[in-house]
Amino acid sequence: MRPGTVERVAKWARRKPTLAAAWSLGFLSLSFGGLGSTAAWNWRAASAARHIESLARKDAETARDEFRIANVRLSEARALAARLLKRSERVEYGWTVEVAQQEWQRNRAGSARQLLDATRPELRGWEWNYVNRLCDSDLLSVQAHDGNCTLAAFSREGELIVSSGTDGAIRIWRPADGSEIRTFRIPDGGIVSGTLDAPGKRLVAACSDNSLRIWDIATGQEIRKFEGHTELVTSASFAPAGDRILSTSHDKTVKVWDATTGVRIFEIPRHANWAAFSPDGSRIVVAGNDGKATVHDSKTGETRLTLAGHAELLGFATFSPDGSKILSTSGDDTAKIWNAKTGAEILTLKGHTENVTASGFSQDGSKIVTASMDGSARIWNATTGEMQRVIKGHTGFVWSAVFSADGQRVLTSGMDGTFRLWNPDFDAESLIFPGNRQEISKASFSPDGSEVISATGDGVIKIRNSATRVERLSIQANPPVWNCTFTPDGSRFAYSANGEIKIHDAKTGAESMTLAGHAEPVIRMQFARDGSKLFTTAVDGTSFVWNLTNGKPIRTAKELSANPVSTAISGDGSRILGVGRNVVIQDAGTGKEVASFPAPSETADFTEFSPDGERILIVSARVVHVLDAETGGAIVRLSGHTDDVRHASFSPEGSRIATASQDNTVKLWDADSGAEVLSLAGHSHYVNSVEFSLDGLRIVTGSWDGSVRIRDSRPIDRIVTVFRDDAAKPAAP
């Protein structure tokens, strides 16, 4: 049997083992080569997959990072948008309040009230309350008539008010509460005007049916009707004794009547809208449409004087209480005072911007009140002609104005249908403390707000009542005095005289302590809230923290931040702030640096902590920077003054900042947004200081014009506001 193929190969391999091994290796290589290629391919695929997975993971991480960044940026954008919206809301609010103030200044109180009412309550602050107070500075406001209230007058003793209006009615009121006593009308027509007799028992009225009528106030019964005028009767009034009646009419006559019989005594051929008896009843003054006032004998009608000088028709004329002067008003926007004996012009009162409609003397003759179509009433010094106060509050023309018998009230009537009572000595805009010989370097409230302390450059320190302005204490110090302030408990006050700080008893004025150590005049003094420390800075930049128990310095100038331009101490007395090229905050006790960061500007004229100590303000020329006290981050930048800012102050709760400037103004700012919310004018020179009272309701300023001013945001203690629907039912007086 022939051997098989496998056997022959085996024999060949035994004979040639080396060659057989080589062939075997080649075969194995060939056989397993295909398998190796497949494994390599699989390895490369796995590696690629791992790489792709890694890239995917990285892409996912990048996407997550980008998503996180996008979310952060979105949050930042939303926060920025919210901040911008908040600022824009406050800017708009501030603009609205300032426009309201301007409307009030233009005698448009109604428009001002509408603007104020349109603001959001949560945005309102000191400035809103202040302007609102301006608009509601009357003591009593009564919506007396539908349409115009053309005339309002007191009875002789002031216990009644009579008003007339274009609704054709005359009404009698109680001034104590604005309650209505009685209404008078005529059957066919209206009542133009009316006045009471001296005892306040009878009312005489000028009527549109060309008649005059007398009523009994108590019963409301018509006593007599006077007929004789052929056209509209424009005015009617009693003689002082009540025995005669004087009337004017469009029929170009002035008539005098017997009040009891109704008989016409005589008439004067004059076209006039108003005429009045002298206080003794012997003379009559007539306000003529020809621009002249004439004086007549009240028994015969004979002309005694002609007063010429107005450029337009006269609307009103009256005698002074002693009969020595005559006061006239005209469409030429002026009022004039005349000598009632000679007819010589004494004074011209200028200030109204529209027709002067009415006027009157105070009972002692020292003051004059005028009413005008410019929407205001004004009070004047009757001797010098100086304007003392502008009364604003009516919407539209003011038709009449008169003093009460005791001079404590002014009564006005207006186009808005109201009559209003005012305190003639009260100025809603500001309470002014005049009489200082030189500039006011500083003014500050006592802790309870009842007094104001002020210092002048010539070294006079005064303490005065913040409501009455009565001076209680005056001290002459060595000039110059740049600073003064009360201790936090109000028991003492301090002032700086050259390089010394003097502390006095606030009641007696006796000196209790002298702090000596500064080589130059002290320009900054701040008490810690607990009154235990006093922080002072001199013009050379040196600063001290004083222990007020023993009068010794706790820390010396050398231990404070080097070369500070402006310094301050926190309200709790724990930190000291120095501003130069850098802002440095130190612990007041140890001197350890708490915070340091670059100053926002090369100059620092004044600096202060916020009440909570979390913010600082830095005055630099015309700009005020507000920074975070910990990080130095900018919060807001206050810019709007047209000259350098001399002083700045936070409100007690920190929501507002007040700034005083060389542009003669004080500005109020929203401390969070930096929006200007009000600008206060009035000073005629640089404003050196501005501070809030501790309750945050008032602001006191001191100026180079020598005056201290207090501006008050508290509502006035008014009697009441009465609307027609709320008026009391007519009742016998």
Describe it.
There is one protein chain. The chain is 16% helix and 43% strand. By secondary structure, the chain is an alpha+beta fold. Among the domains are: 138-167 and 351-425, Methylamine Dehydrogenase, Chain H, CATH 2.130.10.10; 435-534, TolB, C-terminal domain (Neuraminidase, 6 Propeller), CATH 2.120.10. Strands 26-27-28-1-57 form a five-stranded mixed beta sheet, with no helix packed on it. A four-stranded antiparallel beta sheet has the order 2-3-4-5, with no helix packed on it. A hairpin with a 3-residue loop joins strand 7 (202-207) and strand 8. The protein is elongated, with a radius of gyration of 43 Å. The termini are far apart.
How do the helices and strands line up, and which of them pair or pack?
Blueprint (H helix, E strand, L loop, with lengths): L4 H11 L1 H89 L3 H9 L8 H10 L4 E4 L5 E6 L6 E5 L4 E4 L6 E5 L6 E6 L5 E6 L3 E6 L5 E6 L5 E6 L5 E6 L4 E5 L5 E5 L3 E6 L5 E6 L3 E6 L5 E6 L5 E6 L5 E6 L3 E6 L5 E6 L5 E6 L5 E6 L3 E6 L5 E6 L5 E6 L6 E5 L3 E5 L8 E3 L6 E6 L5 E6 L3 E6 L5 E6 L4 E6 L5 E6 L2 E6 L5 E6 L5 E6 L5 E6 L4 E5 L4 E4 L10 E4 L5 E5 L2 E6 L5 E6 L7 E4 L5 E6 L2 E6 L5 E6 L5 E6 L5 E6 L4 E5 L5 E5 L6 E6 L5 E6 L4 E5 L7 E3 L11
Parallel strand pairs: 1-57
Antiparallel strand pairs: 1-28, 2-3, 3-4, 4-5, 6-7, 7-8, 8-9, 10-11, 11-12, 12-13, 14-15, 15-16, 16-17, 18-19, 19-20, 20-21, 22-23, 23-24, 24-25, 26-27, 27-28, 29-56, 30-31, 31-32, 32-33, 34-35, 35-36, 36-37, 38-39, 39-40, 40-41, 42-43, 43-44, 44-45, 46-47, 47-48, 48-49, 50-51, 51-52, 52-53, ...
